[in-house]
Amino acid sequence: MEILVLGSAAGGGFPQWNCNCRNCSGVRTGQVRAQARTQSSIAVRADGGDWLLFNASPDILSQIRAAPDLQPARQLRDSGIAAVLLMDAQIDHVTGLFMLRERGAPLPVWCTDQVAEDLQTGNPVFRVLGHFCGVDRRRIVPGEPFCVPQVPGLRLTPVALSSKAPPYSPHRDAPHPGDNIGMLIEDAQGHRVFYAPGLGAIEPQVAACFDAADGLMLDGTFWRDDEMIALGISGKSARDIGHLPQSGPGGMIDSLARWPGKRRVLIHINNTNPILDEDSPERAQLDEAGIEVAYDGMRLHFGD
Ligand code: MLT
Ligand code: MN
Ligand code: ZN
Questions:
Q1: How far away, in angstroms, is 10 Cα from ligand 2 center?
Q2: What is the pLDDT of residues 56-89, one digit of tens each?
Q3: Which end of the chain has fewer beta carbons closer than 10 Å to its terminal beta carbon, N or C?
Q4: Does domain 2-301 fall into CATH 3.20.20.150?
């Protein structure tokens, strides 16, 4: 299986358009050694075939331009992206669907009932796309494995996560299983990767996926639980908005020590997170723990 990281930042990207935090201003001026990053999305394929897009970021057009593999050019109108799968209905994960509207046929989109409801109501992306290519919506049910016919060779097992539905969701304050999912991705040779860009807690069903996987690509949004509060940009903690912070007791680094033998990669990194600064002590701490930080254009291969 091959995984291409199209966008490794959280909502807002890095640098964020209106942000002058240490990281954002430092990457603009060159005073902080860091790479700019676009918003959260990966593409996955088996055996060199077409790609399954996990989340459609607002930056999708520049992400596609930066990845020639996504354009095999077999006919006048063509794409290597054969289907889309959504992990939640957040703006940073669904807005790119609008950019795929020029398709000649309905876009296959795999998502849970909760995400489909959000995209028909609170943020009616599916209704709008109905005026263009249309959406061929396919149902994901947490706990029920499935295959995507357009992307053969992958078996997918979705798991419900404790995280957060978007602010415009009818279930923002009444969480439903399926508002946010993680995905165990398995190829025909049995290589397995667990992907969860928004993860608030490592519950038993999530720990079971970690056990089963060879590689983990996990929520890297915040270093500290009070990161946004300390900067004075939000009154909410990381955990309040469904993201497990990296530092502290029970944080991501602490938790991942239970899975030392796996490839562990953080993705969906917020622009305020000090791990973006390659010279920071926080980044050194991750290096020490053997945890990688995803970057745009990163490729991960499992098997041949
Ligand atoms: C989140 O996952 O919490 C988002 O990145 C928020 C957003 O897109 O604004
Ligand atoms: Mn996000
Ligand atoms: Zn910033």
A1: 5
A2: 999 999 999 999 999 999 999 999 999 999 999 9
A3: C
A4: no
